[in-house]
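Incident review: delayed structure delivery

Summary: a single-chain prediction request sat in the queue longer than the usual turnaround. Root cause was a stuck worker, restarted by the on-call engineer. No data loss occurred. The affected request and its eventual output are reproduced below so the record is complete for anyone auditing the incident later.

Affected input:
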Amino acid sequence: MKGLLIKDFQLVKNQGKSLLVVALVIAVFLEISGMDSGFSIGYITLIVSIFASTTISYDEYENCFSFLLTLPASRKDYVNEKYIFSALMVLGAWIIGMAFGIIFGVVRGEEMLTLEWFAMCISYMSVAAVFVSVMLPLRLKFEGEKGRVVLPLVIAAAGILIYGGVKLADLAGIDLMKAAVDVLNRIGAAGIIGMLIAVPAVVAVISWLCSWRILRKKEF
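Output delivered after worker restart:
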């Protein structure tokens, strides 16, 4: 599995540098334009998480999968490596984004390092972790051209579900925003942080089981 990690980090070194530079430049622009310091944290983290989930497409190129599976690494090792690599990428991007946001926040005189601010930052990493957990099994399931349309379809489906849920709540006379605020106030910042850690962890476990099942049955 160590060799697979080295392969993916070399891929990041060769293919991901320009993506990170672009993400940092856009984050700087957003900070200068007056956006909240937390937004750049979420932006950098999400962009890197997208790249982490698309490394599977590089493994599919020119039947590279067949070669990888001849190495002293099992299919389970491959699945484990993808999740470890994605977790390291998301965590690394989040730390960079945090440092970025703190520097600009201090320069602008914003109140930093409060429990509420930290909960907001954790939420960005949680969203990125859930996104990667959803994308990895889908990328393993669908190859080539099908794999390339998975991301926009997932985003579109999420948007439709959210919009539909909001509309149904409105028809039922439920104020979702007020209900959400009441729940969040009840559990407090510490409870929110715990929830933001627990939910992605559960989603990741379910995602890993799906990915392992998909790759175990896949033929090359």
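Verification: The mean pLDDT is 76.
Action items: add queue-age alerting; document worker restart procedure.
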